[in-house]
Amino acid sequence: SQQGEEDPQALSIQEGENATMNCSYKTSINNLQWYRQNSGRGLVHLILIRSNEREKHSGRLRVTLDTSKKSSSLLITASRAADTASYFCATGLTGTASKLTFGTGTRLQVTL
Amino acid sequence: DAGITQSPRYKITETGRQVTLMCHQTWSHSYMFWYRQDLGHGLRLIYYSAAADITDKGEVPDGYVVSRSKTENFPLTLESATRSQTSVYFCASRPVSRESYEQYFGPGTRLTVT
Question: Which of A55, B46, B57, B114 is 20 to 30 Å from A96 at the Cα level?
């Protein structure tokens, strides 16, 4: 069964708007990561947040983590057409931090 | 070239044939992983390796075999391909580090089993 589930499955916004996608997971984690996948390409790491952190920023990205609710959110501010991609959360479980379990992804479409 | 590469990028094979997907990384990362990506399932871990000669099963290992005789290579073999193994396969690697658990992905191999 999937550890991470993203919501929504698909999101369409206009350039300049903010995009928020959410991830829920089931068991205790060591860290949670977000990856981006452009069509037909491999995944690219965006940001990592550890289980003892609540919020992290990287450029236009903001990630939050609520371990009590077992959920995370990824906010992309001032979206650009180049942000069009699928976004995946991945959890590293406590005790097995070498492996990641990926969710099913959110497909983001940013239109001009 | 530095990085992580996969070959072939595209492969069509027939049911019952053996096929090997290659993965090569130039960073000397200890950890290497094989995933498959299917619509509705996201990425699922097939096998992973913590170092040369150390491999372990992931979530969906049945029908696959891996080996790791050298740190830089991690081939994935489908011993007798089935249509359900039609998928996009991604290899990834990461260094041993308590500071970063980021994985680096290859470009993928699109495999079709007819």
Answer: A55
Q: What phi-psi label fits residue B42: left (phi over 0), alpha (psi between -120 and 50 degrees) or beta?
A: left
Which residue in chain A is spatially nearest to B41 when comparing CA positions?
A104
Which of B35, B43, B88, B100 best tests the A interface by mutation, with the highest count of A CBs <10 A? Answer: B43
Digit-coded pLDDT (tens) for A14-42: 999 999 999 999 989 999 999 999 998 99
Closest Cα partner for B85 from B34, B36, B39?
A: B36
* Residue B44 sits at the chain A interface (C-beta within 8 Å): yes
Q: What's the CA gap between B25 and B19, in Å, rounded?
A: 20
H-type helices in A40-100, by residue range? none
Neighbouring-strand partners of residue A16 = none
Q: B92, B48 in Cβ contact below 8 A?
A: no
Q: Which tens digit of pLDDT belongs to each residue from B76-114?
A: 999 999 999 999 999 999 988 777 789 999 999 999 999
Contact A103, A6 (CB under 8 A): yes
